Amino acid sequence: MSEQQWTIAATEQPPEWFIQAVKQYTPASSGIYAAQLLWKRGIKDNQQLTAFINYKAYQPASPFDFGQEMHLAIARLQQAYNAKEKIAIWGDFDADGITATSVLWDGLGQFFKQNTQLIYYIPNRLKESHGLNNQGIDNLAKQGCKLIVTCDTGSTNIEEIIYAQQLGIDVIVTDHHTLPTERPPVAAIINPRYLPREHQLFNLSGVAVAYKLVEALYQSLPNVAKHPLEDLLDLVAVGLIADLVQLSGDCRYLAQMGIQRLQADFQQPAAARRRPGVGRLLELCQKNGDRPTDISFGLGPRINAVSRIQGDASFCVELLTSRDAKRCNELAEITELANTRRKSLQKDVQAQVAQKLTQLDLSTTSVIVLEDAQWPAGVLGLVAGQIAQETGRPTILLSTEGAGGAGEAGGEITPLSSNSELRIQHPALPLARGSARSVNSVDLYQLVKDQAHLLHRFGGHPFAAGLSLLVENIPLFTAAINQQLRQSLGGTTLTPTVQADLTVTVADLGKELFLELKLLEPCGMGNPVPKLLIQNCWFENSWHRNQQDWQGKKVQYIKTEFDIRDDSSRSAFPGIWWGHYKDELPVGRCDCIAELDYNTFKKRYEIRLIAVRPSVNSALNTRNLPFILDLRNNPTPHSRTDAINRVSTPPLLLEDCPTNWDDLRAWLRRCLTISRSASGLDNQQQLAIAWSKPNHQPPNQIWLTLVGIAKYLSRTNQPVTRVQLLEKIGISDQTLLVGIKALKSLGFTVKRQDNDLQFAWHPSDRAENFADAAVARFLAAVREEQFQRQYFAEVPLSTIVAIASSDNY
């Protein structure tokens, strides 16, 4: 992977009046961090600040700001209402499309009887593309539908809209994707892209546009609906946040309102919830619904997983809208299983892609294009996004599954959350299908579009695209798209970048800073989660575990937990690092970029590690030290074996807990001796410290055990080795010598014969106080040894490195 580039956002000090205005909302802290971020993100007067933080002070736009198109849509819906026409909702299979369909299902369901007058259709992700298709329209025509209302799709489906018209079906498009060059022949098209970019509705996602249509219908037919419009807001929040749209204007307002509704419903007893399916999903992902991250890391991926794994996601609408708790529990568990499968597939494909990357020279690669016959198309976009972030390069992953046969009958492409799609003549030849993701502001859609002559079909937007092409065209496509990007970059090198917003210390972390930064929530595009730079810090008590699925079965991914420290505080602060093992944490002092979060499951504040590197200002020079693998106190022998197997060279294994620094230094010297006698520091011998936390017996009990063994050996005249004695009593060789002296004071004699010890007991008439003094010295030696073992069981790895680095090897 390419070396990651870190940047620190330039911070402009806001005026004092603005800091004081922000502080009104953060009485427990100075407000300076939130003020800096808000000022930098364009919130620069009191009116903006109030509306940004308090949704009750925000004035949302009227749905009729869409102008004539909204009036046309409402007129057509009123016509359908009066004529009792049958209406079909045409949705989409991602989280925005599913929630948009659910909003129309519940919202229009107040005016049209569900399942008789009102039905819905969601394309199969693995068999159909985004948008309308003739086969689905035929199906709706046979059911007697006279009106299709799309959501999150349809703007560019000109041919399909004309086809629907020929069958006597009108179309109302609600969408937020790319506009066609000319207005399509629809009854109405409600798309915020027609509005000025600065309009507060411009950034609406598909679910929010659907909500605005329902809002306009509520206002036009005020006496019909039985349920309040606000009941839809929780679904709107899920779709908005899952779709990663810019949360400004009405988007932010609707998300804030929706999160309140989501949290309030989840706090109800399970039997009383309006949306038992959403509640059960939150329970399965151990969330409370009160944080935007509960959606972006919990609900959103689970809803998206269904179509990625099963293709057909239609039941998700029932999951989100049904009041039948038993049925919803069943559907939620099916959804959870799909997400489990998605994580497993994503993990497997990620590993395979990483292996293929080792065969690429990234220094001469501008666009990564990889193919495989075994890759499932449903997760390629997710993995491409990960690789793009890690490498800093646009990434295209292609599945040639089934391409060796007669070809791809339907000519489908890997779907995208966009409807800007170019269609090319369908070939009856083997096709590869794939997904592409971009970074570093590279317009991926234009890059792919410029190679249209090599493609069968593609669609997308600047950051994501889906495509299909003849398998035989892949080498030509790869060479052409790389050459094109290299020319446009003009010699500029692409590198993965991560930007920090604020510099803080460990002492700053905690509840006060969390509540201050929470003023910016919900975060999204244009208002990202604040990323915190912590410099010259180190990690302690790190451990990792395999995360299993919700039934405790298959291992899905890795999570490392740790405590972070720096010189600003005597207290450590907890954190997690998803997808990484603990031995990936740097040894010694380092810098890291993290997000501050509240773990509702563990009820604690913690950081979520984003990036970490050895500190450029570290006082520790570990360059000439052996790498130390910390396997202390591993919960299972299996996890320790896993960690050892992941390093390239088998490490020296130190399982006996040392009782002094000299013992440990001796092992470090041994490692360096092996390294130098081999091939230098490029193949350093590693040291694995693998002792467990001691379970000490009281010193008096150890003394009685030693005396009992000595009496037994004297009576039976049996020999014993020193190693056997040490293992039985659990003390060091040095402490055993003190114990033997104490035994001699009681009248024991100890003879050495080869490697054996022979005990004999002749009760002594020596002074009792002499024996007491010798026993007291033994007990003191045991206590000191136990103290040292306890210390080395808990001493931070950074301290071990610091002590080691102070020695001149």
Q: Which value, in Å, is the CA radius of gyration?
A: 33 Å
Q: What profile does the largest beta sheet have?
A: 6 strands, mixed
What structural category arises from helix and sheet content?
alpha/beta
Order of strands across the biggest sheet? 7-8-10-12-11-9
Question: How many DSSP E strands?
Answer: 25
Low-confidence regions: 404-421, 423-427, 618-625
Mean pLDDT: 85
Proportion of residues in extended strands? 15-25%
How is this structure best described in words?
- This protein is an alpha/beta fold and 809 residues long.
- It contains 25 helices and 25 strands.
- It is elongated.
- Residues 404-421, 423-427 and 618-625 have low confidence and may be disordered.
List the helices and strands and how they pair.
Blueprint: E1 5-8, H1 16-23, H2 32-40, H3 46-53, H4 68-83, E2 86-90, H5 95-108, E3 118-121, H6 134-142, E4 145-150, H7 158-166, E5 170-174, E6 188-190, H8 206-220, H9 233-242, H10 250-266, H11 276-284, H12 292-310, H13 315-321, H14 325-357, E7 368-372, H15 380-391, E8 395-399, E9 421-423, E10 431-437, H16 444-449, E11 457-461, E12 464-470, H17 474-489, E13 497-500, E14 502-504, H18 511-517, E15 532-548, E16 555-565, E17 573-578, E18 590-599, E19 604-614, E20 628-630, H19 637-645, E21 652-654, H20 661-677, E22 687-689, H21 699-716, E23 720-721, H22 722-729, H23 733-745, E24 748-753, E25 756-761, H24 768-794, H25 797-805
Parallel strand pairs: 1-13, 2-3, 2-4, 4-5, 5-6, 7-8, 14-15, 17-19, 20-22, 21-22
Antiparallel strand pairs: 8-10, 9-11, 10-12, 11-12, 15-16, 15-18, 16-17, 18-19, 23-25, 24-25
